[in-house]
Amino acid sequence: MATCTIRFLYAAENREFTFTDVAATQSVISIKRAIVDKWPSDLPAATKPPDATHVRLLFAGKFLEDDKVLQDVQHVSVSDTTTFHVIVMAPPAEVKPTGAALPNEKVVAVSGTGTDASGRQSASGRCQCVVS
């Protein structure tokens, strides 16, 4: 079975780490899971992704799809070290509850009708904007 050596660059912390003997038949999602499981302990705990869905791998200018296997990714070498860039996506930001305007902010509600992309008349419902 063909294996690869993969070097991961994590630019947010100016670090790199390497996995050796990675099976060429391994899927991208399984590699992402391995990254989470083997996250370097000397990096700040806040940088560790909570799970594989928060990890993106960039190779040759393209984000790798989870269902791809290494041997199907063009230019991944089984004879030399291949470098992937690791991007950890931040968890979603907390959203302020609706209607909770801060002092000096005004909540503006808008409702009405319009046309959708297919030209049909539709109600837009109600949306609120916070104006400071």
Automatic annotation (TrEMBL):
Would you say which domain of life the source belongs to?
Eukaryota
Q: Tell me the InterPro entries matching this sequence.
A: Ubiquitin-like_dom (IPR000626), Ubiquitin-like_domsf (IPR029071), UBL3-like (IPR040015), UBL3-like_ubiquitin_dom (IPR039540)
Name the Pfam families on file.
Rad60-SLD_2
Report the residue ranges that make up the Ubiquitin-like domain in this protein: 2-93
Please state the span of the N-terminal signal peptide per the UniProt entry: none
Name of the protein this chain belongs to: Ubiquitin-like domain-containing protein
Native species: Diacronema lutheri
